[in-house]
Amino acid sequence: MTSRRIGVYICHCGGNISDYVDVPAVVGAVRDEPDVVVVRDAMFTCSDLTQQEIFSDIVEHRLDGLVVASCSPKLHTFTFREMARRAGLNPYEYTQVNIREQCSWAHTDDPQGATRKAISLVRAGIAGTRGTRPLEPTVVETTQRVLVVGGGLTGMRAAIGLADLGLAVVLVEKTATLGGRVGGMGPMFPHGRVGADLVARLRDDIGRRPAVTVLTGAELVAKSGTYGNYHVVVAVGGERRELAVGQVVVATGFADYEPHIGELGYGMPGVLTLPELVSRLDSSHGPLLHDGRRVGSIAYLYCVGSRNEEHSHCSKYCCSATVHTALRITERNPGARQYHVYRDMRTYGRNEEMLTQSRRRGSLYLKFADDDPPEVAREHGRLEVTVRDLLSAGEEIRLPVDLVVLVTGMVARQNRELVDVLKLPVGRDGFFNEIHPKLRPVETVVDGVTICGTCQGPKTSAESVASGLAAVTHVGAMLKRGVAELDPQVASVNPEACNGCAVCVEACPFGAISMVGAPRPAGGGHRVTPAEAGSGEASPGGLVAAVAATGCKGCGACAPVCPTGAIDLAGYTDAQVTAIIDALAMDLPGPEGRTGDVVGPGGARLRVAAEAPAEVVR
Hints:
27% helix; 33 strands; FAD/NAD(P)-binding domain; Rossmann fold; 4 domains; five-stranded parallel sheet
């Protein structure tokens, strides 16, 4: 194999790695690896300063391979690829080794083991990098149309933003009208605007944009094609419409938690959820009534259906929504006693002002322990809430009230069909998962599918709109270029080694593999038997497998099932994977670094030298 010039950079990650991994020991262990000409450690390899240092090394030392041992590749693969490209190094000759999640964080109880594992993983990364070759993305023209799934506040705002960028938009809403939950709301916090009025204005804005096509009573039922050029099928009533789109934006919203009968008194007369109370307020005028009588006392029970075994997340908007509702009731029922029975109060940002106003206007706040929730009973024909208040030294307090309001949070909407069609990633909480909440907050692991709004987690209306506009920015940045670059790390078939068994066709989850070549003789063709498939003989009918580069996602499912080894995956070839395995399996030599021992395979102790250089350059 041709000699390479590889640079290796080990990250401390501000202590996230170096608190448990002996970084200088890792530097010392790999400095004499074949083809390695530069080894450095850095506090933050992703920082602008260290990126510039790596940039300079690539140029000065004519590096043709790069290994960065830091955090998950999900975070900074694109960061380092772009830096490598700017320095003149092919981005696909860069390898990121994860020694934070896979070493430091996974083995906080075993620093020596974490260090040993980090050394092995970096060696494996170097071995794999030796086998890299320059790759170039496949460039395809993109369809200048976007499918937005979900016609609520977020989806409508995203559709308007995309249209204003000059893109055609198809807005698909499952129900009969646009607007979603906000369309039926009255005054909303913190601005006091009526939800129905906001939605009406957005409908008018959409109506003035001919680039937006609205399909109500419609559902997405199928998707095929490739990144930038998808073919989707939308069912509208009994009709199926086929559309070509470049991107899909998902804004399907959330569902309210529905309490079980008997949960904190739910099902008793006078016990209702916060959405039910808000609906009563929005649909009536004058004092709030219950059973024809003016309501004089209310107890709000917080965190119902949130932060428990079934739904461990905090819905975060509920506290502010409840305080806002209480202020509305103060206006309509002056003198009403309102008790807020809470676990934690999260009226963050400017909503703290509402909380202060609520206290000043008479609302009483009582805090209960996580493991000691309030109880609701009906005594002498009246509701009574019993709570042990932590703010008064755990004193048990009984609150006779006219209404009990269960403050329910957001839960994920059931979208099994949509998940299956788009292959959407779903978290343990049932919401859709973005790649990273800070670095890539609206992107998913599915190329060309973006999520925004409350389908990815609880948000206020303002946060949902901001999320929708982030999706607009991301989608617009890609489509307005007119072309898309597809990842070149895809599978390929050696036709001379392929025996035409078609096992790979069945294994591919994306339909990117087909059988091509001369057709089998009429009446004489047959499907290859397992015995024939394992023989490695040529295809009797001349048909061989072929991979569509624009359809392949590089998942590698086809390669291991090929009985003749005819399939390779660019960036993860058989030779590279074999080299990685060999590097992981080898016995570790004693790394030269700081004084101390590193435990090697079989419990052997590897002595580390006293002086460990912070960098090694040859």
